[in-house]
Amino acid sequence: GTDLGNILLYAKRSDEAIAQFNKVIAIDPKFWVAYWYLGRAYHANGKYKEAVEAYRKGLALNDHPYLKALLIRSLAKTGARVEALELLDELQADSTSRYIPSSAFALAYGGLGEK
């Protein structure tokens, strides 16, 4: 299910990818990865508020650093920079107690327009 959605997303068929990820979520609403990918598809389609919602649902199921970084990126696109910066602070605080890949920080900072 999610593999097909990813293929559609990489083929720049984001509307079809969104439909596919929603099918996966309908089957298993606790499959957090589907929300991650759904958020990416919404973001690619310029639907940043929907991406934020998908990432929030995924984070409620799994506190994955990439989900948080992608949420930061989409929040910045919606103009919610203050919340995005607060989440970045959380991500930085998380890095003192667990491994946070540098690429997650790159996604977050890039989404905020910072180098």
Number of strands: 0
Helix content: over 70%
Instruction: List the secondary-structure elements in sequence, H or E.
Output: HHHHHHH
Shape: globular
Rg over CA atoms, rounded to whole Å, is: 14 Å
Low-confidence stretches: none
Question: What percent strand?
Answer: under 5%
User: What's the tally of helices?
Assistant: 7
Question: The biggest beta sheet, please?
Answer: none
The overall average pLDDT, rounded, is 95
* Structural class by secondary-structure content: mainly alpha
If you had to describe this structure to a student in words, what would you say it looks like?
- By secondary structure, this protein is mostly helical.
- The chain is built from 7 helices and no strands.
- It has helices at 2-10, 14-27, 32-44, 48-61, 65-78, 81-94, 102-111.
- Helix 2 (14-27) packs antiparallel against helix 3 (32-44) and helix 5 (65-78) runs antiparallel to helix 6 (81-94).
- The longest helix has 14 residues, at 14-27.
- The radius of gyration is 14 Å and the shape is globular.
- The model has no long low-confidence stretch (mean pLDDT 95).
Question: How do the helices and strands line up, and which of them pair or pack?
Answer:
Elements: H1 2-10, H2 14-27, H3 32-44, H4 48-61, H5 65-78, H6 81-94, H7 102-111
Helix pairs in contact: 1-2, 1-3, 2-3, 3-4, 3-5, 4-5, 5-6, 5-7
